[in-house]
Design goal:
The protein is an alpha+beta fold and 264 residues long. It has two domains: 147 residues, Fructose-1,6-Bisphosphatase, Chain A, domain 1 (2-Layer Sandwich), CATH 3.30.540.10; 107 residues, D-Maltodextrin-Binding Protein, domain 2 (3-Layer(aba) Sandwich), CATH 3.40.190.80. Helix content is 34%, strand content 26%. A seven-stranded mixed beta sheet has the order 3-4-5-6-7-8-9, with helices on both faces. It has a five-stranded mixed beta sheet with strand order 11-10-12-14-13, sandwiched between helices. Strands 1-2 form a two-stranded antiparallel sheet. Helix 1 packs antiparallel against helix 2 and helix 6 runs parallel beside helix 8. The radius of gyration is 17 Å and the shape is globular. The mean pLDDT is 93.
Amino acid sequence: MPELDDDLQFALRLADAADAVSAARFRANDLHVTTKPDRTHVTDADRSVERAIRELIGTERPGDAVFGEEYGDAGDDPRAAHRSWIIDPIDGTHSYERGLPMWGTLIALVVDGRPVVGVASSPALGKRWWAATGSGAWAAETGGEPVRLRVSGIRALAEAAISFQSIQQWDRSGHLDHLIALSRIVWRDRAYGDVWAYTLLAEGLIEVVAEFGVHPYDVAALVPIVEEAGGRFTAAEGGDVLWDGSAVATNGAVHDEVLGLLAE
């Protein structure tokens, strides 16, 4: 959609600002890690990245709501807002703090409850992915030319590769038996984790990503990227993914089969 071009370009500039902070603190000897009340970890980089993004949004999009992992909604209701930026400053904090490169910043614009712009930027992997509704999904390596993304054409779950995020996650959510059943059907099962798994799907390298215990900031930016690449993105029960707490993304062709298995 042409009307989203300015928002997409702004989101890419937000990602530039985020990368400048996160890349500078990656593998820093003095990286500060604390534990939040929900027992997840947070680094000083997580908070600094989100502050940098919020500052730019406040300056250039002052009428828009903002919802981020580290600082919440600041009094805005992202569900009720016409326009809301949803941010995960560092998706994959545990990888980040351990010095592993599979992490990235997620930036989404949600309009009337629907993610319409998404940027996933991973400076440690040297790559960025982005999409806007109606404009396709794209990726580029640092300094490289953009390449349009397309999900794979595999139509049989027995020939598909799945990323399941983690065994613990499925076990805690009561879906471990479903994961084992899936593992017996698919061609390959791996736990690529966080942002990287969804971008592999959009690039056509795997066919299924499914996880539980997710928040809006974990998936909002990835919805346009997967869908504009030709895939499907729903909750595990088939509904809207944003506030459900579960996520199933596929190349589209195997989506109903995966949902059917999860419903058994």
